[in-house]
Every structure is written in C-alpha cells, then in structure tokens.
Amino acid sequence: KDRALNSFAKVEQAIAATYNPLATNDLYGENLMRNPELMADNLDLTQGGIPNDPYVNRNTNIFTGGNRATWAAAYRAIRNANEIIQAIDGGQVIEGASAAQRNQWKGECLAIRALMHFELVRLWGHPFSFNPTGNLGVPLRLKALSSDEALDRASRATVAEVYAAVISDLQAAIPLLPPTYGNGGRISTWAARAIL
C-alpha cells in the first residue's frame, strides 16, 4: 500500500477512482437525484412501475430498492478518500509533488468525504432539526481502515456528530483547494463553500 501512490499518475488515478462513484447511477447519476425527491413527495414514479411508498413514508433502509448500491458507492468514495488522505498525511505520496498539489489532493478528498457523509445522513438519518444529538445518523468513516477493521460492524454516529464531521472536513478542505480548475469536474474552493 505504501508504494501504491508513488507517482503523480498513480495519485491522479486514485483521485479519479474517488470521484468515479459519484458519477454512477448509484449516486448522482440517478439515485441521489431521484430518491430525495421521492422522500420529499415531489415526484411520483408509480406510473413507471417504481413504488413510491417506501420513500414517501421514509420507510427505507439500505436494503430497499437500489439503496444498497447507493450506500456501497458512497462508502467506496469515502474509503478511497481516506486512503489518499492517510497516504498524504503519512508522507507516502510521491516526493515530486509540490505542497500545493498535495494540498489540492487532500482538499478534494476531504470535500468528497464530507459530501458523501452528508448525503448518507440526509437519506438515512432524521432531519437535523429533530433531536440531532439523540437520533442516530450513519457510521462515520474518518480514517483508512485495515482489512480487519473493515470487517468490523460500524456503529452509527448521531446526526449531530455526522454534521460536525461534515462541517469540519469542509472547513479543512476550503483553504487547500484551488478556486477553479481548467478542465472542471473537480471540487474547487467555491464548490466546497457551496456544500458548506
């Protein structure tokens, strides 16, 4: 693992692998666009053969419909982000990368981790306005896990703890990110500020 991110190209591939789940149908390609609208009762898909009831009644879990794929894709992005953050913080990323480049990579990963935790708690936690310190949200994954740790059942953090981690990650990411990218498609300072 310590040699996995030993070239600029490999780090960029790892960053792309962190962004990749976000574009799939499991996340922003479909499920994260449709399911919250169903839960808000803004959309009716019964004509298309998709039952609305589990979403409208907020009676969903990770086993309902395509939710397992959404859950897995979000945590895959979080896992990838955590591994890159750990490599950067541990000095395992190539020496040839400038401090600005390492900061950009870390900022992107922090922002992706925050965004995925936000989406997960938004779907499977109570609204923040409803007893955030008492109600459970989703498991927080704030570090890269060993193989053994990944097999352990993760406990759920409270809604307030998840939101605090999201805010912390975004606040840490903002000064590390550039204001824009020439080719777009990556999280910038302004994108992280908008999420915050």
List the helices and strands and how they pair.
Layout: H1 8-23, H2 31-39, H3 53-56, H4 67-89, H5 99-124, H6 147-151, H7 159-173, H8 189-195
Describe the structure.
By secondary structure, the chain is mostly helical. 54% of the residues lie in helices and 0% in strands. The protein contains eight helices and no strands. The chain has helices spanning 8-23, 31-39, 53-56, 67-89, 99-124, 147-151, 159-173, 189-195. Helix 4 runs antiparallel to helix 5 and helix 5 (99-124) packs antiparallel against helix 7. The longest helix is centred in the middle third of the chain and has 26 residues, at 99-124. The radius of gyration is 18 Å and the shape is globular.
Compute the average pLDDT. Answer: 87
Q: For the report, how would you describe the main beta sheet?
A: none
Percentage of residues assigned to helices: 40-55%
Helix/strand-derived category reads mainly alpha
Rg result: 18 Å
- Give the SSE order as H and E letters: HHHHHHHH
Short description:
The protein has helices at 8-23, 31-39, 53-56, 67-89, 99-124, 147-151, 159-173, 189-195. It is mainly alpha-helical and 196 residues long. Helix 1 (8-23) packs parallel to helix 5 and helix 4 (67-89) runs antiparallel to helix 5 (99-124).
